[in-house]
Amino acid sequence: GTILHNVMQRFDFQKKNIEEVVASVDEMYQERIKHDLEQFVHTHLYQEICQSPKVSREMPFNLSLQQKEVYEEEIQDKSGEDIVLIQGVIDLFFETEDGIVKFNWSIIEKH
């Protein structure tokens, strides 16, 4: 989703040939990915991931919470006991001496 969003932000609507569009996207993302990876391998986070005994990626989750745990009082039913289901995917998580670190790649993107 993020890549498509970025592509569409820079999409050249004057290019009629799909091969030209794909080539420009490939070039744009090759440079961006190379730059991002070069920066990432020098971060503390990267070092922690490399040293972790267990790294997991793309882990789906479901979490059931009472409505009162998720929403503010004015939008709850009277009891706040209704169940809210939260679903998602954890991009990456890994173990450290201090516990488990969960990570979402999209939140580190610079704007």
Describe the structure.
With 111 residues, the protein is α+β, with helices and mostly antiparallel strands. A three-stranded antiparallel sheet has the order 1-2-3. The protein is built from four helices and three strands; from the N terminus they run H-H-H-E-H-E-E. The two termini are 16 Å apart. Helix content is 40%, strand content 28%. The radius of gyration is 20 Å and the shape is flat.
Q: Can you tell me the overall shape?
A: flat
Question: What are the segments in which pLDDT stays under 50 over at least 5 consecutive residues?
Answer: none
The succession of helices and strands, N to C, reads HHHEHEE
Q: How would you sum up the major sheet?
A: 3 strands, antiparallel
> Hey, roughly how much beta strand do the residues contain?
25-35%
Task: Set down the secondary structure blueprint.
Blueprint: H1 2-10, H2 18-40, H3 44-51, E1 55-66, H4 67-70, E2 83-96, E3 99-103
Antiparallel strand pairs: 1-2, 2-3
Describe the structure concisely.
The protein is built from 4 helices and 3 strands; from the N terminus they run αααβαββ. The protein is an alpha+beta fold. A 3-stranded antiparallel β-sheet has the order 1-2-3.
Q: Which terms would index this structure?
A:
alpha+beta, flat, single chain, three-stranded antiparallel sheet, 4 helices, 111 residues
